[in-house]
Amino acid sequence: MKKVYKVLVGCFFILPLVYFLNTPRSAALQVVYPKTQNTSISAASTFIIGSTTPEAKLKINDIDVKVHDNGSFVQVVPLNNGVNEIKIDSLDSKEHNTMTYIINRVPQKNPESAQAPLEEFAPDEFIYAAVLKDNTPLRAQPDEYARRLTHLSKDTVLMLNGKKGEYYRVSLTPSENAWIKSSCVVNYSTINQKMFAAVSQVSLSEDKLYNYIKTNLSFPVPYKITETADGLNMELYNIEKNTADTMLFQTSGEVKSFTVNSVAPDKISTYFIELKNKLWGYDAYYEGNTLVLKIRKAPDIDKENPLNGITVFLDAGHGSEEAGAIGPTGIKEKDVNLDIVKKLKIILEKEGAKVLLTRNDDTNVPLYERAKMMRESDALISLSIHANALADGADPYEKHGTSVLYYNREAVELAKTLRDVVTRKLGTKDDGVGMYSLVMTRPTMPLSVLIEVAYMIHPDEYKLLLEENFRQQAAEAITDGLKEYLLNSVKTESIN
Ligand SMILES: [Zn+2]
Predict the structure, then answer these.
(1) Residues 271 and 332 in one domain
(2) Please, what is the end-to-end C-alpha distance for the chain in angstroms?
(3) Partners of 283 in beta bridges
(4) Which of 19, 269, 419, 433 could form a disulfide with 236 if both were Cys (CB 3.0 to 4.6 A apart)?
(5) Residue 109 pLDDT level (bands cut at 50, 70, 90)
């Protein structure tokens, strides 16, 4: 998953995947990471990853390094500030093969916006602006790594009342602000009072798969959705008047209760949605001036055959020139991921599931395109399959195993169950369940997780990932994890 490596493959013969994954390279000494012999790094250590002839004696800066039986080696090298010279010497029966790497350890850069001065607007002065693209993040701080408060749809109207570096400050309530990149909005005009929207109608409806809550507004406002213990809360900002405040709604389908409460001084309208079952996914978007909240209905799960009739979306990480992590002997993560996904598809289909893929060959689908395909798939569950690597500063012998990443609360149980079942069946180390904001974990529908099956840069795990049988077992373990999750969900729901 981590883009530690980026390798450009110029001329490349298209050979069967099996050939790639099972054929060891025989070059005397090759280093796959660092990717260039002269580079800058800010971490306190890096690692040298590569391969040599299995019988060679290998030294890195005069320290003996273990060469594994497939020729792989991985060594952590501490870095001093400034220029570091790293000498790699591989001695086999005939000769020394040497390579020298120059790594410049540089201080970490602070984001530019952090240093930029804050430009306050006059108290009643606002820039009236609109969002240029769907899925634009609104952040807690003026920094591209800051927490995402929510995502905005194209044409959402914002009131801007300050600027810091590349970011505008967005006024949400008298006491709550957020930040948006200035290149993400178009400014219409400067106005001398904040503009508020009116809600003319709120309605509930349903079809086979979803419940809908539709809100007609005078213009699209920012909103934020929070997952609660029994459903969802949705806050609409900059609302002058909501006709739904006093209404009693006839609920149906998944929605057990629905109430609207507006707070006058804050100009926030909050929707409280209580669900009959656990949350199976939701999405919100604008259709013109209508805000649509779409809530997934609980699936019918066959206790004898839990995957029967379930749609699963599978994403094989990376592809084409986007290789992902590179193992010590040069095998690319993208090929390992794709092979596991193909095996998983066959097993899931035998279980009666419908399977959709982002790719089934060595093509690269852009990340946001993958997320869009996922959101539009009507799948119940999305799995993105990867094999892991680490960033400089970590120790690949310490941190390894299987991990499952999620972002939304609704996907925690799925992540935990997959982690439990996969580590148990494969015997891999438990590398944890983690909340990560990633393109493939952020969508709130389908339930989305990303599995790091094992590490490409851990010599033993790499060897396993290259075994056909291990990849087959990984696909079977993931299937068992999905079945267990679906069965547990039925049990939980029959208690309620
Ligand atoms: Zn990856």
Answers:
(1) no
(2) 38
(3) 294
(4) 269
(5) confident
Question: Same domain, yes or no, for 367 and 403?
Answer: yes
Question: Does 243 share its domain with 121?
Answer: yes
pLDDT at 349 over 50: yes
Angle at 80 between CA 76 and CA 86, to 5 degrees: 55
Domain at 258, CATH number: 2.60.40.3500
User: What is the 148 CA–ligand 1 centroid distance (Å)?
Assistant: 22
Å from CA of 201 to ligand 1 middle: 45
Q: Mapping DSSP to helix (H, G, I), strand (E, B) and coil, where does residue 435 land? A: strand
Q: Give distance in angstroms: CA of 315 to centre of ligand 1.
A: 11
Question: φ, ψ for residue 24 (rounded to 5)?
Answer: -70, 145
- Is pTM beyond 0.85? Reply is yes
Q: Are residues 355 and 487 in the same domain?
A: yes
3-class DSSP string for 280-306: CCEEEEEECCEEEEEEECCCCCCCCCC
Answer for the pair 301, 400: CB distance below 8 angstroms, yes or no. Answer: no
State the Cα–Cα distance between residues 162 and 178, nearest whole angstrom.
10
Compute the distance from residue 361 Cα to the ligand 1 centre, in Å.
16
User: 180-215 burial, b if ≥16 CB within 10 A, otherwise e?
Assistant: bbbebbeeeeeeeebeebebeebebeeeebbbebeb
CA–CA dist 58, 29 (Å, integer): 10
Q: How far apart are CA 297 and CA 279, in angstroms?
A: 8
Domain count, the chain: 3
State the pairing for strand pair 176-181/354-357. Answer: unpaired
Q: Say what the pLDDT of residue 1 is.
A: 46
Q: Are residues 323 and 243 in the same domain?
A: no
Residues 94 and 128 in one domain: no
Kindly give the distance from the C-alpha atom of residue 137 to the centroid of ligand 1, in angstroms, as a whole number.
23
Give a yes or no: residue 20 inside a domain: no
**Are residue 442 and residue 329 in the same domain, yes or no?**
yes
User: Phi and psi at residue 413, in whole multiples of 5°?
Assistant: -65, -40
CA of 292 to the centre of ligand 1 (A): 33
